[in-house]
Amino acid sequence: MAQTSSGIELSEIAIFSELSKRELKTVARLMTSVDVKEGATLTKQGEPGREFMIISSGTAKVEIDGVTVAHLGPSDFLGELAVISGTPRTATVTATSPMLVEVLNRREFMSMLDESTSLSRKILVGAVKRLQQNERSRTN
Length: 140
Fold this sequence. Notes:
Layout: H1 21-30, E1 32-36, E2 41-43, E3 51-57, E4 60-64, E5 67-72, E6 77-78, H2 80-85, E7 92-95, E8 99-105, H3 106-115, H4 117-139
Antiparallel strand pairs: 1-8, 2-7, 3-6, 3-8, 4-5, 4-7
């Protein structure tokens, strides 16, 4: 299987669950591990999105318009919608503990999508599913 340097098994991450072993290895090679201090802002609502992140360890809270809407932990991911679409971040995400995150910047993410139409399709389907989940949680 394909793991990041911090040990995250990419096939267990929802957005990558449909990828082949070869595609997962490509993604794993592009990821960079980053230590994040408690209280650090990972994303800020309204700002441009430059990174996709997977939480390897630690926790974070997600706020939209100042209201906490979710809590994230290991194996959760964030930032894919802004990175794919180039639109501003839809939420502010703040570390609630020390964290280790795996990061893929926009340039790497987009070049990965350009390399394989199969990979692109699978990741975009995963992102659409995430968008649908977000919409359902906002209306409930």
